[in-house]
Amino acid sequence: MALKRISDSILYVGADDRTIDLFENQYPVSNGVTYNSYVIKDSKIAVMDTVDERATDQWFDNLEEAFEGKAPDYLVVSHLEPDHSGNIERFLKKYPDTIVVANAKTFAMLPQFIDIDVPEDKRFVAAEGTTLALGKHVLTFVMAPMVHWPEVMVEYESTEKVLFSADGFGTFGALGDRLKTSELENMPQSWADEARRYFINIVGKYGPSVQGLLKKASALDISVIAPLHGPVIDKDFDFYIDKYMRWSSYQPEEKGTVIAYSTLHGNTRKAALKLGDDLKKLSDEPVVVYDLSRDDCAKAVADSFRFDKLVLAGVTYDGGLMPCMEDFIYHLKMKNYQNRKAAVIENGSWGPVAGKLMTDALASFKNMNVCETKVTIKTRLNAKNESELSDLAKWLLN
Ligand code: FEO
């Protein structure tokens, strides 16, 4: 099959991985994931990053097809996380004359990832603003520390105006025989859900670093964004950049409510669903309900960042919270959840403490408007609770 390509000179040599179930051994990827890699063909040939070990054979086949019998001149290493550095060592053994292009931090960390030394005369040390001419194509290096590892850099190719954005603008999901967002259906909207789940959970903690990169990128004239996961973005740039601005500044994308519940026997679920029904009766705003025991925590976290309101409905368990609620709150905290309206529903057949624990957690986040009145259920919803839930729906929508 012919290689996918960005242009006549820039080929896609990455690979789909449909065999993986959990990315980073924690995020479900039912539609797989891609490990993107590109080859720029000019007087010199540059390979933009390697791929995960899981895609070794496919990648080397693609490289051979792209090289057409020539040898590569440069291997650019944007990011050392193993889903991109997994084949550096094999590549350098197969193409030992290649010059490795990386920044000083990357060269310092490289021995943690490979067992061979890169000799001094095979190193090109990139720094902020350094350029590398391949012929007509010229790469300019832009440092992007903590997006989301310290050594990350991105590259701007000024002739075709391509930003190689490392994990930035990446998303889950295999690509099949398509590459560009302009070739995919229901774009750009269909990109957002999985890109949000990817961004919030993987990069979300480092919002200020992403803002710094966006500021640098705003000075570039960009025609294509080529990330290390998911499709190459070739139109509707305002949509994608607006999403990144919101996600990285922890601002909600739209009005709506996430109700995340933990339940032992279903009574707290009934309260969560009742509140959801009350909200839907009062407004057309979206309401998304998550069972934290069963649903994808990463999706619940991502939707919590998407919408402007969050309700935690938790049962008291062993004098604390159910582990799934503890875990959810931990994830919110790790990803810098903030700037939202929130409320709490607690349940407890005796000595309920979940409400205080959840309220304290929410109040510890930045700039939160947490409802002062919590709904307390003693085992089963009663008429008073139903009235309180109706009032809570009104407060949330007020
Ligand atoms: Fe796709 Fe941070 O690795």
Automatic annotation (TrEMBL):
Alphabetical list of InterPro entries matching this protein: Flavodoxin/NO_synth (IPR008254), Flavoprotein-like_sf (IPR029039), Metallo-B-lactamas (IPR001279), ODP_dom (IPR045761), RibonucZ/Hydroxyglut_hydro (IPR036866), Rubredoxin-O_OxRdtase (IPR016440)
Residue stretches in coiled coil: none
SUPFAM superfamilies listed in its UniProt record: Flavoproteins, Metallo-hydrolase/oxidoreductase
PROSITE patterns in UniProt: FLAVODOXIN_LIKE
Source organism superkingdom: Bacteria
UniProt cross-references to CDD domains, sorted A to Z: flavodiiron_proteins_MBL-fold
One Pfam short name: ODP
Domain (Flavodoxin-like): residue spans on this chain: 257-398
Residue spans crossing the bilayer: none
Family indicated by similarity: In the N-terminal section; belongs to the zinc metallo-hydrolase group 3 family.
PANTHER family registered for this protein in UniProt: ANAEROBIC NITRIC OXIDE REDUCTASE FLAVORUBREDOXIN
Protein name: FprA family A-type flavoprotein
